Amino acid sequence: MARWFCRKGKTMAKLLNVVGPATAEDADKAYEATREPHDRERLIAIRMAQQGDYTLDQIGYSLKRGRATIARWLKAYREGGVEELLYRGHGGRSASLSKSDQDALMQGLRSGRWRTAREIQAWLQKEQGVSLSLSGVYYWVYRLKDNR
Q: Domain locations in the chain?
């Protein structure tokens, strides 16, 4: 018998009971194995959906995510299990400095070639052909400083 949840008297939403390629124990093991908050959040959503006591809206509300996001996570889980759920292959934005530009910047930083961020900015524009804001220069100097 299907259970229904009525929210604010507007619509009746069906409770989820998600079955996928992974068991609840697999999801629990993956949760314990990761420390990444975004991975844990996705695994919590799957566990809530597996319990059969929540709707998409309720899971989204408890995790502060939209209904469409939860539905996308459930689809990924159904199609490929925990691995597909946790895979994020979009990669994000590409780096503003190529690997060779980063290496050249690193070499210059190691040798003490520049004294100011403006000097680095001018060098990048003139010699590397890269237009970078001062905040971008500071970003790269900070990011590369651990590798010096």
A: 4-86, 99-145
User: Using CA atoms in the order 22, 76, 43, 16, what is the torsion angle rounded to 10 degrees?
Assistant: -80
Q: Which residues of the chain have pLDDT under 70?
A: 1-12, 90-92, 147-148
Tell me what pLDDT residue 22 has: 77
| Sign of torsion over alpha carbons 23, 25, 29, 31 | positive
Rounded-to-integer distance, Cα 78 and Cα 98, Å: 37
Give the CA distances from residue 61 to residues 76, 80, 145, in Å, rounded to whole numbers and listed in that order: 20, 25, 41
The three-state (H, E, C) secondary structure of 101-116, written as one string: HHHHHHHHHHHCCCCC
pLDDT single digits (tens) 78-95 = 998 899 988 887 666 777
* Cα–Cα dist 108/105, whole Å: 5
